[in-house]
Amino acid sequence: MALFPSSGQQTRSDPSKAVLNTTAKTGARALESKLSYRTINVPDESRIPELLVTRDGAPVDPAE
Q1: pTM
Q2: Contact 21/12 with Cβ under 8 angstroms?
Q3: Nearest Cα to 24, choosing from 48, 49, 53, 2?
Q4: What is the DSSP annotation of 1-64?
Q5: 1 pLDDT exceeds 60?
Q6: Among candidate residues 57, 8, 13, 60, the one with its CA nearest the CA of residue 39
């Protein structure tokens, strides 16, 4: 997924790459509707120093 937005940004200001830019935008829109999103919300009053949220075994940065 990251490929399409990256391609779109890299080709946006180059008129010779307009077709690639359009393809990147179209691909990103098509994939976006198929993505799943998860929100993890831990209220401040429920947080403990030992709390560790993981995704696929890897710690999730609280800023994410």
Answers
A1: 0.38
A2: yes
A3: 2
A4: -THHHHHHHHHTT-GGGHHHHHHHHHHHHHHHTT---------GGG--TT---EETTEEPPTT-
A5: no
A6: 60
